[in-house]
Amino acid sequence: MAQTTENIEASHIHLDSSFVVIFSKSKGMRQLNLQQLRDYELKPGEFYWAYLQRSSSQNRDFLEDLGLESCDIDELLARDVRPHCHMRSGGAFIAMNVFNALPKQDSSDMECVQLWVDATRIICIWHNPLDIFQRLLEGFQTHVPPASTAEFWARLALAVAGSAEEMVEGLQDRIDHLEDVVLETGDHPWESELAQVRRLATIIRRSMLVHLDTLRNFEVENFEWVNRVNRRRIREAGDRTLRITEEMDAIRERAEIVHDQIMFKRSENINRYMLTMAAIAVVFLPLTFITGLLGINVAGIPGSHDPVAFTVVSAILIFIGVVLFVIVRRFKIF
């Protein structure tokens, strides 16, 4: 039987390589490598967490040695998997989207994590190190480590919801700023900023809806190794996830209001400019007509040989212009 390392602290676990952690109520947390787990025999009350890097060539052999079915192994190692939850007789396969930070481009910035959960093991397949597992380890550091795989999965689900809540707060701050800029100062923010907020809200909402469906599917299954406390934790994670989707709907609606306000102000400015141009045309179009009429090169133009005719015509045009301006202002055209 392989010997494990001495009890370790969660802060000593590094997430940049594959490893296995044995959880025991009496012996705490102990770390193994993949080869040691093959020869390790779990004691009553123990379970393990296998943290595997997807690019490792030893994963399939390792998972086959653990006794997983080939279809479950294929799903665990697949690179392009849509988030979902498949229930098996002894456990569950779970694929879920996890954000390291606010996505900047599209849904491909999300990391899909595949997990297998049953009574004695929880297996995580990852491609890039994720903050969510670091948060989980910090939770193990400040609180008692999980006593079962069900509690581990419940804490992970709560950590995913907590991470999403931080993103919600970030989006709320951004939409608050846009509302202040548009509704209070009247300035027009960059439309790309508003479009990005709406896109992020849509991506997060879609991801959280899938995560909610996963939690609901897991919750309704009557696994004997999931006790009432952990079911309540999973239900709480589902409630928080649902609240996040509602917040995303609210943010999208607020973004729509801001967008409508921007379009209204833009339309209002255009109408004001067009009205100003129309008022200018009302004043100068008659004057242009008169000067054009007097400028034709035909005989019979009055005062064409009179030296004071230009002064008289200019005065008349100024008078007509002033009268038209007064009429425009009186009718409040602009």
Report on this model:
With 334 residues, the chain is of the alpha+beta class. Strands 2-1-3-7-6-5-4 form a seven-stranded mixed β-sheet, with helices on both faces.
What sequence of helices (H) and strands (E) makes up the elements?
EEHEHHEEEEHHHHH
Poorly predicted residue ranges: 1-5
The average pLDDT value, as a whole number, equals 81
Structural class of the secondary elements?
A: alpha+beta
- Order of neighbouring strands in the sheet with most strands: 2-1-3-7-6-5-4
Shape: rod-shaped
Number of domains: 2
Provide the CATH topology of the largest domain: Beta Polymerase, domain 2
Strand count, sense and barrel status of the largest sheet are: 7 strands, mixed
Q: Care to give the gist of this entry?
A:
This is Zinc transporter ZntB. The chain has helices spanning 34-38, 59-65, 70-77, 131-142, 149-185, 191-220, 228-294, 309-330, and strands at residues 19-24, 28-32, 47-53, 84-87, 91-98, 111-118, 121-126.
Task: Give a topology summary.
Blueprint: E1 19-24, E2 28-32, H1 34-38, E3 47-53, H2 59-65, H3 70-77, E4 84-87, E5 91-98, E6 111-118, E7 121-126, H4 131-142, H5 149-185, H6 191-220, H7 228-294, H8 309-330
Helix pairs in contact: 4-5, 5-6, 5-7, 6-7, 7-8
Task: Offer a few descriptive terms.
alpha+beta; 7-stranded mixed β-sheet; 56% helix; disordered N terminus; transmembrane helix; MgTranspt_CorA/ZnTranspt_ZntB
